[in-house]
Amino acid sequence: MVNFEKTNLPTDSEIRQDLAKEKAKRVKALAKNPDSKAGSYRLENVIVQVQNDFKDKCYICERKDLIDINIEHFTAHKGNPDLEFSWENLFWSCSHCNNIKSDNEVFNNILDCTNLAHKVAEWIGYFIEIPEQKGKIEIKTQDCSQEYLERVNNTVALLQEVYEGTTPLKKIGASNLRKLIAIEIGKLRLDLIKYYQMNEADELKHILFTSICKHLSISSPFTAFKRWLILQKEKLKQDFEPYFD
Ligand SMILES: [Zn+2]
Predict the structure, then answer these.
(1) Is there a domain that residue 5 lies in?
(2) Tens of pLDDT along 77-129?
(3) 22-38 pLDDT, tens digit each
(4) Is the pTM of this model over 0.85?
(5) Residues 144-201: pLDDT tens digits?
(6) Of 49, 94, 120, 190, whose Cβ has the fewest other Cβ atoms within 10 Å?
(7) Domain for residue 178, yes or no?
């Protein structure tokens, strides 16, 4: 998990106004039918903006270019139109993560990656053991302020479930997810090995530098794992941490 800055839309923005209109439809319909599903937050302009803000990545597992896309409610709305149609509450996630998060009430109290004060990539450690065909993953609570400890621990528990799976079917999904992470980490490691073998004068060294920085950008898949790999080695940290976006 990494932090994303969600677009701070003005009150009179088209998206906020459209969401307000859809919410009004729901509220009106609910007065007649308590089960009404009138109105939808799944509007094209809303979806495109959420997708851009989250760099087309599931905010939980950090998989990119999703096919199984969900617009997730960070705080479960449980039929409350204020939460269901709130711009701030709409997040980009995959169905694997959305299902696991909705299965446990405690995951309603996790770190908010769109709140820059919640240091999701610092207060949580992301470790993957390679070589191992499917990659063993450990998510660990790091030093953080006492005030956030419960949220950090809940986020760690959620991520661990996401990367391990909770049911026979989700375990297969999680295993496939770990393979994707292992492949991405493998690419980064290969770039790093080649980078340190090159002379300063070699043009390829600069190409590799750009490629490594791209891997470490929040737009890249599984950035938190890649950044932790860098931060664990002093030399790598010194050379690349200044380029984290
Ligand atoms: Zn996910």
Answers:
(1) no
(2) 999 999 999 999 999 999 999 999 998 999 999 999 999 999 999 999 999 88
(3) 999 999 999 999 999 99
(4) yes
(5) 989 999 999 999 999 999 999 999 999 999 999 999 999 999 999 999 999 999 988 8
(6) 190
(7) yes
Mean pLDDT across the chain, nearest whole number?
A: 95
The answer to whether residue 1 is domain-embedded is: no
Distance 64 CA to ligand 1 centre (A): 9
Q: What's the CA-to-centroid distance between 33 and ligand 1, angstroms?
A: 34
Q: What is the pLDDT of residue 129?
A: 82
| Under 8 Å between Cβ of 1 and 58 | no
Residue 120's domain comprises 14-243
Tell me which residue of 60, 57, 56 sits closest to 163, measured CA to CA.
60
Alpha carbon of 158 to ligand 1 centroid (Å): 11
Count the domains in the chain: 1
Report how far ligand 1's centroid is from the alpha carbon of 137 (Å): 15
**Residue 203 C-alpha to ligand 1 middle, in angstroms?**
37
- Residues around ion ligand 1, judged by CB within 5 A, are 58, 60-61, 94, 97
Q: Decide if 2 is inside a domain.
A: no
